[in-house]
């Protein structure tokens, strides 16, 4: 095995957890194979954090042009770094930015793109990626070719790496045409809670029926020590903010407990929660697809269950 390249994504306060999650896995893959892990960060603001990553080498593309995400400039820069270093695999978080960047770089470098990856394994000296395809309806096992590949990994499948190291540091000369100027970055609504960090999610779907019933879910979540998340129709109806949405166009979560209340289990929803440690489904329809992924299921009415369970948990 040669080099694994990890692309670090800038967040509001340092590198995002989604990109830090890739570091530990990269180290694990190279540990017994005499390989190296190299991380690349963009913009002057990434230098300090890069110098403390627990990897072998880091590259800082420290042009002010790269301080904010700029697709053409990021792609051109990463293209040069990949061509100069020939990594056997390039890992990027499967975030909004990562999907955009990964596709562009794969096209520029003429490398395959493996998106929605949920695992990486080493067999001999070959890396195999597990990837969700057809909106999570099927799972593919893909052997990475010797020429390399760009792999975007779903957030939440591994833990964010907090180890500190002292890597070899290199500044990358940025020589990219300024095809686009970023004038302003408008941050998406972050919401009041980060559902990706919660151990317990009480997740409501269209079965909640009306926003007047949401306090029942909030009350249950509080008595369980968890937070409320939801399926997309609940967000589309404006009953909960987008930050609470689980699924393909929402957040990927991996809580210890995912209590799915009145959620049918569409592939786009399952894509965001199927790796939860324990899934309990409450759905009046015993044939709902959520029952196929749930560890436990019940057909009781969620509107009756929520207050009763909250009361029981509070010992009332
Ligand atoms: C490109 C694309 C992206 C998408 N992204 C997402 C995404 O990120 N997240 C997401 O969730 N969806 C997403 N969707 C939508 C997805 O396809 C489904 O439409 C959605 O997940 C359905 O939500 P639901 O399960 O809450 O509603 P429904 O499918 O309507 O299911 C409601 C369920 O509640 C049950 N129920 C009703 N009343 C009760 C009761 N009193 N007690 C118990 N159970 C009850 C019903 O039996 C039913 O199974 C996306 C779709 C597309 C096309």
CATH topology of the largest domain: Rossmann fold
- At the first level of CATH, the class of the largest domain is Alpha Beta
Tell me the fraction of residues in β-strands, as a range. 25-35%
The counted number of beta strands is 16
- Straight-line N-to-C gap: 60 Å
In the CATH hierarchy, what is the superfamily of the largest domain?
A: HUPs
List the strand order in the largest sheet.
9-8-7-10-6-1-4-5-11
Q: Determine the oligomeric state from the structure.
A: single chain
Helix count, DSSP H or I runs of 4 or more residues: 9
Structure explained in plain terms:
The chain starts with a strand and ends with a helix. Strand 4, helix 2 and strand 5 form a beta-alpha-beta unit. The chain has two domains: 3-171, Rossmann fold; 195-313, Rossmann fold. The protein contains nine helices and 16 strands. By secondary structure, the chain is an alpha/beta fold. It has helices at 17-31, 47-51, 71-85, 96-109, 214-224, 232-236, 267-270, 290-293, 302-313; strands at 3-7, 10-11, 14-15, 36-42, 57-61, 89-93, 113-123, 126-133, 138-143, 150-153, 168-171, 200-204, 227-230, 257-261, 278-282, 296-298. A nine-stranded mixed beta sheet has the order 9-8-7-10-6-1-4-5-11, sandwiched between helices. The protein has a five-stranded parallel beta sheet with strand order 13-12-14-15-16. Strands 2-3 form a two-stranded antiparallel sheet.
